[in-house]
Write a structure and sequence with these properties.
The protein is an alpha/beta fold. The chain has 6 helices and 6 strands. Helix 4 crosses helix 5 (159-174) and helix 5 crosses helix 6.
């Protein structure tokens, strides 16, 4: 299947946690409120446009079962407390992390074995894709806004840049990328850099 660049339809379920501090939401420069979903004033920073653009760029690299003209996925910005609970429940790791990706599709490992990196938790799955049965459900990306804000200065990023970085990382995980070793991490980060080059 060949999908022309820029022709991806995306149904994005976007939400922010109720317990996030209003000042932190304001610091996210329009990427952490309802208008961040499709606001034309947000330009390339609008999540639906940005993620749709990335999916268009990635089409040629995806295995055939993940190539589609329409996708559904969820993006949640949450507190450290909420992501720490998910991290414990799903990865058996204590404390908050910056981003989690819950894949809805099986992908193929390097040896040809299908696997799903992390299944969708019941609270985050969304069966109400508005694009119909032809749309491929990718899963959910969950980002801790508080962790993103803390680590952005360490990476030389604004909070908005850090959020885009983490969203690109989560999206690649939903599409089967992983980083079990340094070489694969460097390859994944290089691909993120290519995606982010057009996102500023």
């Amino acid at each position: 299947m060949s999908i022309p660049a820029g022709s991806i339809d995306l149904d994005l379920a976007f939400q922010t946690g109720d317990d996030l501090p209003p000042t932190l939401l304001g610091d996210a420069v329009g990427l952490a409120d309802a208008k961040a979903l499709v606001d034309p004033l947000a330009g390339s920073g609008a999540w639906a446009d940005l993620l749709g653009h990335w999916l268009s760029q990635l089409q040629a690299e995806l295995p055939p079962p993940l190539q589609a003209g329409a996708y559904c996925l969820g993006l949640s910005l949450v507190s450290d407390a909420e992501i720490a609970e998910l991290n414990q429940d799903w990865r058996q790791k204590q404390g908050p992390t910056d981003v989690l990706a819950f894949a809805a599709q099986e992908t193929i490992d390097d040896d040809g074995t299908p696997f799903a990196p992390m299944p969708l938790p019941p609270d985050f799955s969304d069966d109400d894709c508005g694009l119909g049965p032809e749309a491929l459900e990718l899963g959910d990306i969950v980002i801790s806004l508080e962790t993103a804000a803390r680590q952005a200065p360490d990476h030389g990023h604004s909070l908005a840049q850090e959020l885009r970085f983490l969203a690109s990382h989560g999206l690649l995980h939903l599409l089967g990328w992983d980083h079990p070793d340094d070489a694969s991490l460097q390859a994944m980060l290089a691909r993120q850099d290519q995606l982010l080059a057009g996102a500023e």
